[in-house]
Amino acid sequence: MNIHKIAIIGGGNLGSAIAKGLIHTSSISAASVFVTRRRAQLLAALSQLGITTGSDNLAAVKEADIVFLAVKPYQMQEVLQEVTPALAPKAIIISLATGIDNKQLLELSGGQHPVFRAMPNTAVAIGQSMTCISGMNASEEQTEVVQSLFEKLGSVQIIPEELMAGATVLAACGIAFALRFIRAATQGGIEIGFGSELALKIASQTVKGAAHLLIEGDSHPEAEIDKVTTPRGITISGLNEMEHQGFSSSLIKGLMTSFQKIENGKK
Q1: Taking a C-beta distance cutoff of 8 angstroms, is the pair 84, 135 a contact?
Q2: Which end of the chain is more exposed for a tag (fewer CB within 10 A), N or C?
Q3: Is residue 1 part of a domain?
């Protein structure tokens, strides 16, 4: 399947990040991406990149091969009712909304199109997202198209739909949790004598290196921790103090709190 046009309905943070990622990391031209937002003037930065922008959702989806729905869950029904009559027969719908399952998407879009839920994170803008996807009413070829599209934007994992709420917390919310760690490490670095910019650079690269050890080395966190924790050493002393203060516990509780909020929103 050749992709000639991509529509992104909802040019907020995530929708805009996907648009930037697509034109920077794939062969898709900026002119073939159409991003909409009610206040289209807020899309000026995308326009400067050559991306087509506006507030007309029908114009955006007309003849689009891929239609991203990057809107709030409460807006989904209204948006699908508006755009479904204008969708191309072979259009693939990809929802980025939390809490709207594929069965609902299929019903709201008339049951004629393949639908996918996708949960990337904002690192999609630089081609470093972790994206989880699940589909319904889709052929193997259509699934491969969606997977290939997101592979240009980072790592992709196809998962059962019942895990999508968890993927939202671990990948999408998770990037904020990781950034908060980097921010805290930076503040600690300032307190022990570094300037803020240098502390941030050191903390950021250290986290990047730690992630690469696991991804490229196919290693386990504890195995890598053991390599730098010597008897009576400074690393183990710091780690133990963090655990005494509830480091791992508070992170797990934060993940569970975010997850419960999604689950409670379904009721």
Answers
A1: no
A2: C
A3: no
